[in-house]
Write a structure and sequence with these properties.
601 residues, alpha/beta, ABC transporter transmembrane region fold, Rossmann fold, six-stranded mixed beta sheet, four-stranded antiparallel beta sheet, 21 helices, 10 strands, 63% helix, disordered N terminus, disordered C terminus, binds adenosine-5'-triphosphate
Length: 601
């Protein structure tokens, strides 16, 4: 997945396109229609040569009648009409299939990716996945929608044209056979250069885009450090290098066109000369020569077109490979084939039994080591421990973002691996350290865990989270947009929205990662009250950073290097666990000696 740009574009395995057949299968009737239109238009185009011959021989010969001319032109008109209709049908259907298949692929890949275990995204960058779903599918859409049709049409033209050439005049055909490579070789050579350069050009343009993206996103940082001048210089460099590459490509393209025009017209002139002598000698008719040149140009052009789109087909094969790889990525935390049902009235009883876990990227290091803990329904547990002790890992294991490698985690007595992921997570709400808000309105964000919630329910949840008041003060209340990632709200406001979201979801099990960053006293007070209300009557596991929390929970679990080293209340642990005492003194400073004061805050 971390392949480079140039590797990305190439794939020699055109056969991988076969795998696309599964996606084309539902649209076989459209494909049949497109094929018929394709064959018809190719047939008509080929017959134009014959029409031309008739026109020249009968229409303009000295003994031709006006009626014959009219008849020939009428036939020509009918053929043109048929060609126009066929072209419409072919273009419409083929483009339709291209768009449809790429839409289906996008949906299939996203539907697969969104369910993958989070560990997958540690090794596969989100930007890369994004570009697969957008750029690679767009590439396929272009190829299916045009390149394949160009290749097929030109193949038919090539075969048909060649047959008709032989029928029309075998001697001149020899001359054509000589001129075809003359035209094709420069097309291939220049075409290849143009392709490489256009790839580089695209990369450079992408560089320009990402530079702008980064600068604009961090505009305050840029301006605060007076970095505009340097950024402008760097940006100018990007733009100029994109320009240089583009000019190189245009140069090659211009040479390509010039060479092709010279060679094609040169070959036509040669044929006119040889054929013209034959016409003068009465060996062939003028119409035959006209038809012949028509077919010769057609054959040469079709070979050129096929060689052009062959590169596209290769690139499409590469894109398909990458998309199929994404589709084939295995979910390491699957829902069992026959999941056990949740109890009718879930209690929120959580048990850790000899739980052992190492991250796949660090198999030698135990992030959780033989951990046993029984959390009775409705009780609250604070996880404490130094940085890297395994607190967040434990929370991730409960959500089944990873599966334990040893022992089991049980929810109401059922191993969580036996439950469906949906059922398990429907019982859990999470309030993360950095609240995650999505682009949308305040109401959308509160509704996140319960999409069908009514406006009244949303407001009730916001009131319980002490968020209603500030939401009301926003210009459009609940319909105010929060900006990307909630940028238009303060830290404390975002936290209360995250709490309102959890209240609305009404889970049996609450996972809470307290914010470490200090809020002002008023926000802190409101967030704390909101949390207390949320925790009431639910099994709660909180990664604690506040003294007010540790003194209020039922039990504190002290973690060290993935091991559970002590459990008890704050006062008990201050006596019994030197590790806890030290951690608490570091965490709360002088507050340790005055828990009563803080607890009332
Ligand atoms: N995705 C990961 N891949 C590999 N190792 C990881 C990953 N996430 C965490 N770890 C490691 O696992 C151990 C436990 O990390 P964890 O995040 O659970 O600690 P924590 O107690 O939550 O720390 P903090 O308080 O700093 O958030 C650490 O040694 C950490 O480096």
């Amino acid at each position: 997945m971390t392949d480079t740009g140039s590797e990305r574009e190439k794939s020699t395995n055109v056969g991988v396109l076969k795998a696309m057949m599964a996606f084309l299968q539902p649209y076989r009737w459209q494909m049949v229609g497109a094929s018929i239109a394709l064959i018809c238009t190719a047939g008509i185009t080929l017959s134009i040569g014959q029409g031309l011959r008739m026109l020249v021989d009968q229409g303009f010969s000295s003994n031709a009648s006006e009626a014959a001319l009219n008849q020939a032109l009428l036939l020509f008109m009918v053929m043109i009409l048929l060609l126009a209709t066929g072209t419409f049908v072919r273009f419409y259907l083929v483009s339709w299939i291209g768009e449809r298949v790429s839409a289906d692929l996008r949906k299939a890949v996203f539907a697969h990716v969104i369910h993958l275990h989070p560990g997958y995204f540690e090794t596969n960058l989100s930007g890369e996945i994004q570009s697969r779903i957008t750029t690679d599918t767009t590439l396929l859409q272009t190829v299916i929608g045009s390149s394949v049709s160009i290749a097929l049409r030109n193949f038919l033209m090539f075969v048909g044209g060649l047959i008709l050439l032989f029928i029309t005049n075998p001697k001149l055909t020899g001359l054509v056979m000589l001129s075809v490579p003359l035209v094709v070789v420069p097309i291939i050579v220049f075409g290849r250069r143009v392709r490489t350069l256009s790839r580089t050009s695209q990369d450079r343009i992408a560089g320009v885009g990402s530079f702008v993206g980064e600068a604009v996103k961090n505009i305050k940082m840029v301006q605060a450090f007076n970095h505009q001048k340097l950024d402008k210089q760097a940006f100018d460099g990007h733009v100029e290098s994109a320009f240089t590459v583009a000019i190189g490509r245009i140069n090659q393209r211009a040479w390509l066109s010039t060479t092709v025009i010279t060679l094609v017209l040169g070959a036509v002139t040669a044929m006119l000369w040889v054929g013209g002598l034959d016409v003068l000698a009465g060996k062939i008719s003028g119409g035959e020569l006209a038809a012949f040149i028509f077919y010769a140009v057609m054959v040469a052009a079709s070979v050129g077109a096929i060689s052009e789109v062959y590169g596209d087909l290769q690139r499409a094969a590469g894109a398909t490979e990458r998309l199929l790889e994404l589709l084939a990525a295995e979910n390491l935390v699957p829902t069992p084939d026959q999941p056990l049902p949740l109890p009718v009235a879930p209690q929120g009883h959580l048990q850790f039994e000899n739980v052992g876990f190492s991250y796949p990227s660090r198999p030698e290091q135990r992030a959780i080591d033989n951990l046993n803990l029984n959390i009775s329904p409705g009780s609250s547990v604070a996880l404490v421990g130094s940085s890297g002790a395994g607190k967040s890992t434990l929370v991730d294991l409960i959500l089944r973002f990873y599966d334990v490698q040893q022992g089991a985690i049980r929810f109401d007595g059922i191993d969580i691996r036996e439950l469906s992921l949906d059922d398990l997570r429907s019982q859990i709400a999470m309030v993360p350290q950095q609240p995650v808000l999505f682009t949308g309105t305040v109401a959308d964000n509160i509704r996140y865990g319960k999409p069908d919630a009514s406006a009244e329910e949303i407001e009730a949840a916001a009131r319980s989270a002490y968020a209603h008041e500030f939401i009301e003060r926003l210009s459009e209340g609940y319909d105010s947009f929060v900006g990307e990632g909630g940028i238009r709200l303060s830290g404390g406001q975002r936290q209360r929205i995250a709490i309102a979201r959890a209240i609305l979801a009404d889970p049996t099990l609450l996972l809470l990662d307290e914010a470490t960053s200090a809020l002002d006293a008023e926000s802190e007070y409101q967030v704390q009250r909101a949390l207390e209300l949320l925790m009431k009557g639910r099994t709660t596991i909180v990664i604690a950073h506040r003294l007010a929390t540790v003194v209020n929970v039922d039990i504190i679990a002290v973690l060290d290097h993935g091991k559970l080293v002590a459990t008890g209340s704050h006062t008990e642990l201050l006596q019994s666990s030197p590790l806890y005492a030290r951690w608490a003194s570091l965490q709360f400073d002088e507050g340790v000696n005055a828990p009563d004061v803080v607890a009332t805050v």
